[in-house]
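Handout, section B. The chain below has 139 residues.
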Amino acid sequence: MTTSSPRAVIERWFDRLWRERDPAAFDDMRDPTAQSHGLGQAAFDYAAFKAFHARACEVFEKTAVVVDEVILEGERAAYRGRFLAMRRGVQFEMHGAGFMTIRDGRIIAGHNYWDVAGLLAQAGVGPGATTLEEALSLL
């Protein structure tokens, strides 16, 4: 991948991963040794994150992430956004934020904080999950 601004990398990452549902984004944009935190288990390695993405794409017919704000400091970026999804004709919106470290146009680390309880409340599911991974099993 060519070197891009951290903001452009974040926006393209979410666009490819969720709107386009393109699993090749993992290979193109993320360092294979990168770990993602906050999506389920303590840390998602490459294979676990790909499996999580595939499961989310099974649960929701349509997905997208809108990046509302990015704050940059060197190769580190904080973002705030909204996960938009459609399941059985019902629209869901989940607010979240996170941090990424981006080096040479590739994501080398990620920390994610998303409102899982809000997503479950929209789906009419009780507060039985504390992670996105658990929430997907309840939907």
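Note. Residues 68 and 81 are 5 Å apart (CA to CA). Compare this with the example in section A.
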